[in-house]
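Late entry, evening session. Most of the bench is empty. Finally got around to the prediction I had been postponing all week. Sequence below, unchanged from the version circulated by S.P.
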Amino acid sequence: MPELTQIRDLAATRPRGPVLSVLLRTDLRDPRNVNGANAWRIELRNGLREIRAHLPEDRDERAAFERAAQEMETWAAWAGGLSPHVRGRGLARFIAPQNGLDRAYTLQLPLEETVVVWNRRPYVLPLLAIADRGRPAGIVAIDQERVRLVSWADGSAVEPENATFELWRGRWTDYAAYADGNSQRAQQTGRHPEAFEDRERVHREVSLAEAAVAVGERARELEWARLLLVGDAALVARFEQALPVAAARLVAGRMPARLAELPMAEIAARAEPLLDELWRAEARDLTKRAHALACADEGAVVGIQATARALTESRVERLLVDPACIVPAELAHDGPVVDMLDGAPPTFAAERAAELALATGAAVTTLSRADGGEEGLSVTGGMAALLRH
């Protein structure tokens, strides 16, 4: 998965001649890709056929497209023979045959759909959508014995060093060392078990608060953008209450499940669907916030015309855009809209807006109307922006 700086560099590329951008949804969780069906290869062929049917008569451009298309089909055939683990859940490649540009990426989060584009710039909007969805998250699994951390980003999970806080010892350790157990602790319960359990219960409450403070520090060290708290609801509530203010603000959601003893990969797999839904909920909330602020004329704009003007004036902090938004005919000659499109057709409104946002240091969140419903970007004309102070 490319980092945001790589996507920004790709978006800023101005090659000599058009670029063939291919982004393939290879995710095996898509029913169309199971049992060797590989629908993404059919979608690639269909996309290339559609472009071929609308190419200009320019002989050089047609020849350049055919070279790039042949290379893409060869690459797709090779990728089709890879194991799903190596192939990932998405593939992206950008080829400018007249300029030597050739970049390829494996994605561990699925694209919304396969995209095939022939244009004078790389088509980066789907990569931006995945980068936003894949922002680093800390999965914090809590139970009566331990607090365990899993780092998740861009669809991949790792267990940080010293990822388990033992509540009965009040210290961090590697999960493997923790799982080996402690024979002395088992022996301690042999005499006066009730008194021991009472002392241990009090000790655990103190250690839970200590763990919350420690997790706040780890969240800062690991640069997590959000936290998902997993465990019994009452236990999670006590843990969250003890979190430092900065870490508490990162809490994006809570998951009532007992996962702390599971393998790291299974914890991540169980948490990922909720992380994805939390991202969509956050995008909807940002859209509602932009709409409310724009209505009050305070720090936001909505609609293609106002957003284009803010983008061209470098006033945007975060762009909110529906990938399917199209510039309507009545705005086709509006100055800021024309500047934003920079010669692209009206159907490229979202892509050009995202490129301009990247160039001016703004963040980008995409939200389709299907995801947003009545609360989504459909009420803003497909585009909105939170402005810099």
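Two things to note before I forget:
Residues 45 and 73 are 8 Å apart (CA to CA).
The chain is about 45% helix and 20% strand.
Will write this up properly tomorrow.
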